[in-house]
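WARN no homologs supplied; continuing
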Amino acid sequence: MSWAVVHDSHMTYPLLPGLRVVESSAFIAAPLAGLTLSQYGADVIRVDMIGGGIDYGRLPRMPSGRSLYWTALNKGKRSIAIDLRRPEGRELVQALVTAPGPDAGVLLTNIGTPWLAHDVLAARRADVISCTIQGNGDGSTAVDYTVHCATGYPAITGHEGDGRPVNQVLPAWDMACAYQAAFAIVAAVQRRSRTGEGAAMSLALSDVAFTMLSHLGVLGEAEVLGQERPALGNHIYGAFGRDFETADGRRVMVAAISAGQWQALLRACDAAPAMAELEARLGLDFADEGQRFEGRDAIAALLEPWFARRSHADVVSALNASRVCWGPYQTAREAMTQDPRVSLANPVFERMDTPGIGPHMAAGAAVRLQGAEREATPPAPLLGADTDAVLAEVLGLPAHEVGRLHDAGVVAGADRDPSTRQD
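OK structure emitted
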């Protein structure tokens, strides 16, 4: 089978040419940060144990064992497989991170191994930049799920009166942490180009979560107003928005946060006269989003019959005609087959052929940069697919020395990737 990239569009922006980042990572936050840098043109070299690290076989997997999760997070990167338990293997990684070059000398990691500590690397290259993602700021372990439960959000997810916390299945804090890490690295590289200074940066997952609670006013609400938000079901906090069921059992989500969105919803449902009567009865002014939130249950009860009498197709037609802000409830498979936003009609997607996966649709950078041409995203490599090239290009090792490292089991190529085994 050929592993050539098949593309219908161009997905990566060459905005960070020459920037080289060595990534030693697992799970979501750090790999996603590396993917983001790669999608803007950085040369991201992912370092893994021979045979793969702790996240290499994570679900969902192909029958061969190749992880759709891992390959999706690591497309566009180069892969080098090294025995990280051996001193000679660790020395190679340290050399890769601290190799010379004005746009080299950058480490992205969430492994936290002492031999990749900033001081160790700075002894070899004074202007090295390291970004270490942690669970908690004190270095203790945490993952998205153990951070999210402490934010208060599970207590307000679910239906009022239920009392049981409802976890968020989207790893939102991992995602926010990833983008902060990528931004921090670019900012540190920019500063180094001006001042020559390196940077030792650490970014805690829990700090990302709790600072976001501050940015969104949640902590201020708790401290200044002394109140907790109630569980709201599918209502939108602070304005009006909720899901509604159509006559054929489908559901749509509508949002009326701004004044324009509110008026659009009233037009679509021909509800302005009845809504004015409701305002008068409740003594509320629905021109104010806070008062729409206060009257949310009564508003929803007034609108429910309109949705319940109409098919999903008729509801969609009416909502679109009035430019209502709404969205469909759909599964991922339904999105891929029915939603043009999740298709090759959207230029952020492309076709690629990933080793061990086969042809599939994949996403590039989400930003649409006017006037900049996108370049094709290489698929995620097999483990060690770039070992020889990286050792030769970055460290200048001759072929016989690379061969010796292979023979000694210090490094490996794609032939040692578990998903290539036929047994």
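The chain has 17 helices and twelve strands.
OK
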